[in-house]
Amino acid sequence: xxxxxxxxxxxxxxxxxxxxxxxxxxxxxxxxxxxxxxxxxxxxxxxxxxxxxxxxxxxxxxxxxxxxxxxxxxxxxxxxxxxxxxxxxxxxxxxxxxxxxxxxxxxxxxxxxxxxxxxxxxxxxxxxxxxxxxxxxxxxxxxxxxxxxxxxxxxxxxxxxxxxxxxxxxxxxxxxxxxxxxxxxxxxxxxxxxxxxxxxxxxxxxxxxxxxxxxxxxxxxxxxxxxxxxxxxxxxxxxxxxxxxxxxxxxxxxxxxxxxxxxxxxxxxxxxxxxxxxxxxxxxxxxxxxxxxxxxxxxxxxxxxxxxxxxxxxxxxxxxxxxxxxxxxxxxxxxxxxxxxxxxxxxxxxxxxxxxxxxxxxxxxxxxxxxxxxxxxxxxxxxxxxxxxxxxxxxxxxxxxxxxxxxxxxxxxxxxxxxxxxxxxxxxxxxxxxxxxxxxxxxxxxxxxxxxxxxxxxxxxxxxxxxxxxxxxxxxxxxxxxxxxxxxxxxxxxxxxxxxxxxxxxxxxxxxxxxxxxxxxxxxxxxxxxxxxxxxxxxxxxxxxxxxxxxxxxxxxxxxxxxxxxxxxxxxxxxxxxxxxxxxxxxxxxxxxxxxxxxxxxxxxxxxxxxxxxxxxxxxxxxxxxxxxx
Length: 630
Known about the structure:
There is one protein chain. By secondary structure, the protein is an alpha/beta fold. It folds into five domains: 3-195, P-loop containing nucleotide triphosphate hydrolases (Rossmann fold, 3-Layer(aba) Sandwich), CATH 3.40.50.300; 203-329 and 523-547, P-loop containing nucleotide triphosphate hydrolases (Rossmann fold, 3-Layer(aba) Sandwich); 338-411 and 494-511, Winged helix-like DNA-binding domain superfamily/Winged helix DNA-binding domain (Arc Repressor Mutant, subunit A, Orthogonal Bundle); 415-489, Arc Repressor Mutant, subunit A, CATH 1.10.10; 560-629, Orthogonal Bundle (Arc Repressor Mutant, subunit A). The strands form five sheets. The chain has a seven-stranded parallel β-sheet, sandwiched between helices. The protein has a six-stranded parallel β-sheet with strand order 8-13-12-9-11-10, sandwiched between helices. Helix 2 runs parallel beside helix 3, helix 13 runs antiparallel to helix 21 (513-535) and helix 23 crosses helix 25 (605-617).
């Protein structure tokens, strides 16, 4: 089946977007590829279509669990078998999924980079018929990038297992330096590099430097028709801003990673269908959400890098129609950004202390804990040990780089159940234990395949059907697990922390101080670029293109800087025309003020009076108190 036929059959499109077909054909020829496509450029199609055209399974590495889950759900909905393995899953659950990848009809295996650290996963991958390795958000592999993830450094190990399999790396934002680093870190040989211009001809970039942001926010939303996105820094702000908009008769809702999954889906759907006009969100919102008709994206806080800003702002105007990317920033925001930067680099002694507190928090003995996952409540941890949240998160990133732990983002994992006994044993158990019979029957009727794989369940739904309390359902499930009949994995909505090596004491904790200084330098450069963008009075698009190694770009004519320049130029031309008309009139005769105002056809009365004063001040015309003359 041809690439276009696959696209039509599974995705319903007849044509590819720019560069997609060229990338797909390069992959099918067995070449390593690096693809830089802007937000909304259709990166996933570039590996999904060729993987469908080849025999075997495609392994996809992605750092964002929420995005992985969305893509898996989308593929399954299109009749393409896909599974995902990420932090928080049980060993048996992973075992079953990996078996399905080896022996079953699975076409896509999505893995979080932390999972590549597991010997179990690597061993099982060696038995798979892998047709392609896709690395999404590939900038995460580069230490020069804005979102470096240490576990991404492990990806090259897959190439050792399947050296003949091509690899495709995809990202929306990467400077030339980061591109070269990606190619080197992924051990690419003679890679085909595809770069779509970072220019967005329909997107008007605007920066406002003002104190009253809320007033301006209302003004923009009331002036620009259509749906929009408002990005804020933290979860508390999402609620505050959404309520403020609602009080001002604007249909708005909030979104962040802490919102329960079904509620998140509802919020997304209402916005995508334009039933909610504005979503106020943290940067957790937007990944994998394809809404082409977003007319404005407004940032109420300064981003930490131009890469992040370009990605988020780029969610506006994917339909090619005029859209606006607005940044509201003032001096206070610039100071806050510098403070956050300072907070992001704790001393080595602080990092050691936080590592020690983590061991105590999870009650781990020295030498224990390797490979164990824990649900991690950051707020509770910081409160218990009186730690700052920003410094704690920064310390954990450095501990991750040094190989002591990994930390995933907030994810919602629903409750899952797998029957460990066969049909006959379960039936015998029901007869011998009639008190559990209604729960077992209801589960088997409601959720399919529970003898073969973990099935997602809802305790509240089971309680409703059985007319018992939620606590009684949980108690019975725990009892069934204690008796070895089922494996019951309870739901979680917290980040997953894994100790990747046994706990060591503070004296033996080896912290890479040179790396901390290296990241400090890079982050300072990124912040400097953000501050320059928010303050420098040159074309915004040209600034962004220069940052992404597209120097010498023409001015866009659409951003606030270009429009101000055009207005100034138009005003200057208007004033020149009025002055020329005044002098032309006075060359022929004397004129009174009233006559001049009446006969001049260009500009307002105010413009005419202003230019008369200018000509008088420069001595080009004179007046006797009644008439004007040359």
